[in-house]
Amino acid sequence: MDKILRIDVGAQGGPKATVEPVGDYAGMGGRGMTTMVVYKEVPADCHPLGPENKLVISPGLMSGSAASSSGRLSVGCKSPLTGTIKESNAGGTAAQALGRLGYAAVILEGERQGDDMYKVFIDDQGVKIEKANELKMLPNYELIDKLKPVYGEKVSVISIGTAGEMRFSNSSIAVTDPEFRPTRHCGRGGVGAVMGSKGIKCIVVDASNTKMRQPANPEGFKEANRKFVEGLKQHAVTGQGLPTYGTNVLTNVLNEAGGYPTYNFREGRYKHHQSLSGELQAENMKNREGGQPTHGCHRGCAIQCSGIYTDKDGNYMTKQPEYETVWSHGGNCGIDDLDVVAKLDYLDDNYGVDTIEMGVTIGVAMEAGVIEFGDGEGAINLVHEVGKGTPLGRILGAGAATTARCYGLEHAPVVKGQAMPAYDPRAVKGIGVTYATTTQGADHTAGYAVATNILKVGGDVDPLKPEGQAELSRNLQVATAALDATGYCLFIAFAILDQPETFNAMVDSINQMYGLNMTGDDVVALGQKILKMEREFNKKAGFGPEHDRLPRYFSREPLAPHNVVFDVSNEELDSVYNF
Amino acid sequence: MPYTAPYPEPYDKTLDNLPLIVMEHDAPEWFGILLQGFDMPVPKPCTLREFLCELVGVCGVYTEKYLQTIFLNGKAIDDLDRAMIVPSSRLALSAAMPGLVGATMRRGGYYSRMREGISQSRENTTDSTEEQPFRLQVRLYNAVGRELAGLFLHQGVFVPSEYLLKFLKSQPPKFFDHLHKVVLNGTPLPVTSSSLDSWQLPQGDIALRVTAVQP
Lengths: 579, 215
Ligand code: SF4
Known about the structure:
By secondary structure, chain A is α+β, with helices and mostly antiparallel strands. Chain A has helices spanning 30-41, 94-100, 140-151, 162-165, 191-197, 218-234, 236-245, 250-256, 278-287, 323-329, 338-351, 355-367, 376-388, 391-396, 400-406, 429-437, 452-455, 468-486, 493-498, 500-514, 520-540, 553-556, 570-574; strands at residues 3-8, 16-21, 55-59, 73-78, 85-90, 103-109, 118-123, 126-131, 156-159, 173-175, 184-186, 200-205, 292-295, 306-310, 316-319, 414-415, 418-419. Chain A has 23 helices and 17 strands. Chain B has a 5-stranded mixed sheet. In chain B, strands 2-8-7-4-5 form a 5-stranded mixed sheet. Chain B is α+β, with helices and mostly antiparallel strands. Bound molecules: iron/sulfur cluster. Residues 69, 91, 296-297, 301, 303-306, 489, 491 of chain A line the site of iron/sulfur cluster.
């Protein structure tokens, strides 16, 4: 991965591709790359949909190699939803394909000329860009159906649906999975709108004439990766829980904890949680024709947390909806039917919107009285309104914060304009610290369970100290930023957290791949460097500590059943970035 | 991890003197019947470890390694020896969960500090001195449900009779191929799916015990 592809969408006669050496960005991948390019090349005060913004697409450092679970693709830009820097990542097959073709990044830049939409084709022979107005306003699944006869099913596609084309602040970038379906999404932050603003409908990546990336030390790499996979397989979460139930295994447990946001974050428990549980979802996938409970979002994942979800008659409905999706459309909207949630997940993927933002927006619309809580049919119609760009759909497509503003509601569960995910910060306060302080707007993945205790980020932490929450959150955010640069999936976190030998095998895989001698300290330094650039960008974009807060009502309105409020002090929140 | 130890003798033979259904099944994958939660008899207030280990038989490596997420009355539990099972308690047992929240909820986990406010602390453990029998509400989730359902059913649980019937009616024919005997208060009941409507089950809660097929 030693080259960068730049596509100037404002060039005379249509978008023009230039390939250049990776240069100053050497050693960066995934979030490391997207953040560094945005930090260095995008003016922080620009409009996210203006010509100065750039969309940076980057495979992780390990993507395209034989390293297990390393096919994450990062997309970065200034976010139209939050106004901050943004990194949004997804699985699917494109990161591996770009990695194998040697691209460390694809950067869309410049000022779009006219209304034409373009498609980009990248293979081992180079890059072709063609006008593709026949693809205009196609939802993602229909787009893929049109591309299939032209390119076959072995290619990877990075695309936007109608929401991205209409430049909605809630719009995603889709990545195809091994079945050539557009099911994996860089969902958060409205990155699809930036791709739409550049007039690029899709990027088709064909790596069929390439080989897996070769490690600097093949034998050492093979051994390290073997140990790493062994560790993933033997751990109860990555070897058993995630493959069997997927992430939706969390529904029952979060509900039990009273931290399952219900009815637009009004309550912490949902009485019909069993109807949405991962256990039931797994049964459906096991018992229904065509269902597949254990499935990878790309080839070479040893965990395989995903699945294929079919209806009662065995017809494909969508990929296995994730916990956040089941929650946002399910309990958060009072909808207790997994099949309705699956339909909503399909529509979100098809029109190209983030499922968390969309579900939370529907919850806000329900509170506003647009439809009733529990109205599954109504929710489906609302997503169609978004996908078709009706006047109401345009409001909803702008996300939860805008929708609440339009309807005069205080209850917008957002931070920096981005909807909170499926964990109520009043019950799980440490998550609230991360929601409040991450550079990305409310985001649960920004502070994930990475092996901070092994990494000793910022020294030994005593989790029982009073200021422990901020310190833990800081360390998680640092470690996660580093992991997001590698292309490894965050779900490896549990295995590397619990099993030092698995963590060491992961670091060793990177070392053997690149011929490096990295230690845990270097990983920490990389994470800190990424966060500092993001923080600096946000500061220049006008974000200060006063934006690192949860909406006040989370400190005022107790959450049943535990009747807790978010009471982490501002001083503690402000201490997160003391490094 | 499958539960491999022989099941201990049921600790409560009377099961509250409720109408008792005993079923013999050779491959009782019965997690489904326990999905909605159930009640268990408890002879007197005790610690969670006493309940799990001494009464039910969930002990040792399984408890330490696999029972990673435990809630008592919605409060995350770190210490089995301090958490008290008392009248009207509700217990939920789960394996380790993914993600940051999974790590946060985990028993004695590194991130347990992040769930301050919903953890059971020394102050909010209730001491109950009333040595009376009572019922405990239990929920088994995910892999723990699959692995321990047989053991809990062997001990005997309380479920509403209408729920048991609904569950049986939703089972595929092969379930009944493996069902060898059903006895209600000592009287055998027919064991085909078509005969379910003829079962005269009393209304309300009944005691249910499932045993492996007797040789
Ligand atoms: S664990 Fe799941 S999300 Fe992560 S790489 Fe594997 S299949 Fe994709």
